[in-house]
Amino acid sequence: MSQLKPKKGFKFSIFWAYALVFIFLGGMLLLDENSVTKDVNFTEFEKEVEAKGISKIVVNAAKGEAEAVLTPERAKVIFKDKIQPNTKAVLRTNIPSADKLQDKIEDWRASGAFTGDVEYERSSDFMSLLWSFGPILLIIAFWLFMMRRVSGKDGGPGGVFNVGKSKAKVFDKDGSEKVTFKDVAGLSEAKTEIEEIVEFLKNPQRYTNLGGKIPKGALLVGPPGTGKTLLAKAVAGEADVPFFSMSGSDFVEMFVGVGASRVRDLFRQAKEKAPCIVFIDEIDAVGRARGKNLNMSANDERESTLNQLLTEMDGFGTNSGVIILAATNRADILDKALMRAGRFDRQIYVDLPDLPERVAIFNVHLRNIKIDETVDVDLLARQTPGFSGADIANVCNEAALIAARHNKTMVGRSDFVAAVDRVIGGLEKRNKITTDEEKRAIAIHEAGHATVSWHLRYANPLIKVTIVPRGKALGAAWYLPEERQITPSQAILDEICATLGGRAAEELFIGHISTGAANDLERVTKQAYAMVIYYGMSEQLPNISYYDSTGQNYGFSKPYSEDRARLIDEEVSRIIAEQYERAKEILRSHSQGHNELADKLITNEVIFTEDVEKIFGKRPWVSRTEEILAAREEDESEEKSNVESNDGDSTEDENAENGVTTDGNNVSVTPPPYRP
Questions:
Q1: How many helices (H) and strands (E) does the chain have?
Q2: Do residues 609 and 462 touch, judged by C-beta distance below 8 A?
Q3: Cα–Cα distance between 148 and 14 in angstroms, integer?
Q4: pLDDT computed for residue 550 by the predictor
């Protein structure tokens, strides 16, 4: 896509005026730098002629002046130290008339006082006029220039009189670089609804024949980085209609009434080019709910802009052929009038990508990266749960930078693992000074997390644990969270218990606790309060939720009494205390294995899943993600076996070398061991 460019032309600038003035003044100085002039009366002028000190006379009848060029000897007498070598010395005087001066010159010639040349100038007095009216002309030129700047007619961004014009960028369909729906990985449901709008613009008869009407607006809602703006770019690349792109903050200005004026101008341009699409990014900048501003002295400019936007989208006048696309990650604070049908008919939720969508997103961003055969896209997708499309793009870029930092020609799996760790935990700080006592305490703490989580049913599977400082953390543990749609209460309790495993290990195996569990305690407290006041999972307060989905948060008051608040605090304390004791009981039962893990952490600084398996054995529970990947591998192996059976050339020896074992019609693939 390409932005429509205005025609190029000559643009007047104030620097041109400055240059002309400097050139003029410099020229005048150059003309006069080799001459000195002295004004005298006619009597002194006549005395110099009679003293034979004049070599030439120049008469200017228009000015009524005469100039006499002095001889070098006489110039030194009159000007003394002011005269320089090769400098022309001039005496200037006023004359009664050219005829009387001519008579005087003839008398001087007759007496022998003057024998030089006489010249008569016929000038139009242009220089005098220029010196007289030049400053006035410059002031007029400067005034015209400032008026053009104010009115925005000199090709600039606009002035005071154009401040109410829309700043929307218009994209055409013949651009050299286009983003299409093929470049948007995942988001299948969102793309389906967006593609229908584009198809309606391309082939409206297909829908209008059945009495359907084109949707007036679609609102893209979702967390940051999930691809809302990318979808809008794809619409601009796919649709064969004009596409107006504008940000919500572009409506905001310091002048009163500018936002509403820009809304009117935007829709005026859109109606002239209908059918077309108008995209407003971050619409929450102007679409925030009205009448809820706590600052009583605030300006209501935003509300007037929103009112104009509501009127233009679905007001008394018709607005056919203009489709509004908008994107926001704060749909809960938008005005209800903006969200109703007839304005935004569709609300398209753009969620974080799941496992198959992350695989597709990785494949898109790996197109331009040189990777070797060790890179497993499925494994990368498993290691990045909860990552948005922007996060995945950042991981791919970080992996390329890490490989280049180590002078590699290809990007390998280790580079991607390091990139994931860099994005999640921050930069490694191996030069951070820690004492042996602190290092042992960190190892015991992280080994406590690993030991407790390994023996819990719903705890997230462990990937690796390190005691190398990274970011603000002195140690870190990487897990593979389950991608559940609903979470049972026991899963939350197991997660709280695993999070408290580090603090419990400090108390059991060191004998005292430290500040290293601050982040763990913060997470645990939030989870416990969520169980009690949001999800209704408390024994004393069952089936009660104080969550406000409208985002109003009950204003200044709590929706419960002081007695209920005390009961909530008691329930939260009980849940955390029970899980803390549960974590200590697990650590007591597996104290030997915990100590082995801590010693290995002190020695190697990093332990992986295989190290924990050697100490505690395999976990008896298989995660849902592992089940999905195992089923996918089984389906792929069945497809592969069907192809090989059709060829009829595959042998059992070749299958065994490839990790495939056959038993009748059943085929299974042994996946490679995971070693990040």
A1: 25, 16
A2: yes
A3: 11
A4: 64
What's the alpha-carbon Rg for the chain, to the nearest Å? 43
Q: Give the span between the Cα atoms of 217 and 232, in whole angstroms.
A: 13
- Give, in order, the Cα–Cα distances in Å from 388 to each of 224, 247, 280, 391, 393: 8, 22, 22, 5, 9
Q: Reply yes or no on whether the pLDDT at 284 is more than 90.
A: no
Catalytic residue (choose from 238, 303, 357, 446): 446
Q: How far is CA 81 from CA 35, 53, 75, 78, 294, in A?
A: 14, 18, 10, 9, 80
CA distances (Å), origin 408, targets 143, 366, 369, 676:
62, 17, 12, 18
Q: Beta strands 35-39 and 88-94: pairing type?
A: parallel
Element holding 575 (H helix, E strand): helix 562-589
- pLDDT tens string 220-257: 888 888 888 888 888 877 777 788 888 777 777 656 66
Structure tokens at 580: 């803390």
H, E, C per residue of 628-668: HHHHHHHHHHHHHHHHHHHHCCCCHHHHHHCCEEEECCEEE
Please tell me the distance from the alpha carbon of residue 633 to that of residue 631, in angstroms, as a whole number. 5
One-letter amino acid for residue 618 of the chain: K
Cβ contact 595:440 at 8 Å? no
Q: Are 416 and 437 in contact (CB under 8 A)?
A: no
Task: Provide, for the chain, the percentages of residues in helix, strand and coil under a 3-state DSSP scheme, each rounded to the nearest 5.
Answer: 50, 15, 35
**Total length of the chain:** 676
**Alpha carbon of 559 to those of 533, 548, 562: distances in Å?**
11, 10, 10
Task: Check residue 346 and give its pLDDT.
Answer: 83
Q: Is 446 a catalytic residue?
A: yes
> Over 425-453, what HEC string results?
HCCECCCCCCCHHHHHHHHHHHHHHHHHH
Q: How far apart, in whole angstroms, are the C-alpha atoms of residue 324 and residue 643?
A: 49
Six-digit token string for 11: 């643009």
CA-to-CA separations, 120 to 62, 94, 98, in angstroms, rounded: 10, 14, 9
Q: Is the pLDDT of residue 651 over 50?
A: no
Tokens of 411: 């990007």
In this structure, what DSSP letter does residue 317 have?
Answer: S
DSSP reduced 3-state for 276: strand
Pairing outcome for strands 276-281 and 322-328: parallel
Parallel, antiparallel or unpaired: strands 606-608 and 666-669 = unpaired
Between CA 419 and CA 410 the distance in angstroms is: 15
CA-based angle 275:280:284, to the nearest 5? Answer: 145
The DSSP code sequence of 464-495 is EEE-S-BTTBS-EEEE-----SS--HHHHHHH
Predicted TM-score (pTM) of the model is 0.61
The alpha carbon of 179 is separated from its chain's Cα centroid by a whole number of angstroms, namely 18
